[in-house]
Amino acid sequence: MPELPEVETYRRSIEFHLLGETLLDIRVYNPSLRWPFALEIYNLKNQMLLKVKRRGKYLLLAFSKGWIIIHLGMSGNLRISNQSFPKDKHDHVELIMTNSKILRYNDQRRFGAWLWCIDINKTPLLDSLGPEPLSNNFNGNYLFKISRRKYTPIKPWLMDSKIVAGIGNIYANECLFMSRIDPNRLIDNLNLVETIKLADSIKDILLSAIEKHGTTLQNFLQTDGMPGNFNNSLQVYKRDGKPCYICQQPIKREKQRQRSTYWCTNCQI
DNA sequence: CCCGAGGCCTGCGGGC
DNA sequence: TGCCCGCAGGCCTCGG
User: What is the CATH number of domain A4-127?
Assistant: First the structure.
């Protein structure tokens, strides 16, 4: 579910509320997530939260003995609340902190993960990730270079975390609309002007979605329970059959690799 | 090596 | 009302 902007929204909120607090207790109601809840996390008891980082869609919490790696899968949610807040049946993990606040992990489908590592620079899950889309080493030249002599369609390629980290189905669709590129185009076929336009669109869209605290479709809520505000900015995602905001032609939907792709057949070429 | 389908889960909405 | 099907912000694993 949550893509880079939603995870970044969580990162900022956790940093604001919980950085420097000590982890008093860990409660696990259901350890059977995508992989079993990492038992090493119990060793972090009585340690201070030192850093809150993000890599792609992974949230990284640093303690002196190591890191908690959180991935939210499709339906994972984080909330920061007081003890009095009633528990939901899909609440699976709670971190109880010294300022009497609880970080609570809720995940209806349990595709998410709570893992552990000593060194985030030496962990297989993160090693294989491509560049951060908002960093300087992600740009149109990079996209141009790695797309030569490859013949996969651009849209599923953008969702491959080895190419660029953090882009999922919503933002892949939106970025291609902004750069006016047909999602079915084969990547080798894009010229440098187009890959530059695409990289710039990716940065634009992600930054603006972060500013609006993400997109709420079904499950995503901010740590205070408020929805994200990027929904009104969506140009194509979930708009099949509705008129394109530029040319009024109906937005088309088709599956690519089992995922819905939305685009304007008139504007995107 | 590369690619795509399958599968992990739960819940919702639409058609009959 | 109920059942069945398709659909949903992801991504690892495995087969060809």
Answer: 3.20.190.10
> Is residue A183's beta carbon less than 7 angstroms from any atom in nucleic acid strand C?
no
Q: Where are the domains of chain A?
A: 4-127, 140-263
Could you tell me the strand order of the sheet in which A91-97 lies? A23-28, A91-97, A102-107, A76-81
The residues of A that are catalytic are 2-3, 57, 259
Q: How many residues does chain A have?
A: 269
Global pTM reads 0.97
Closest residue (CA) to C1' of nucleotide B10 is A109
A40-66 pLDDT, tens digit per residue, is 999 999 999 999 999 999 999 999 999
Query: Whole-angstrom Cα distance, residue A167 to residue A5?
Result: 9
Q: Are A176 and A143 in contact (CB under 8 A)?
A: no
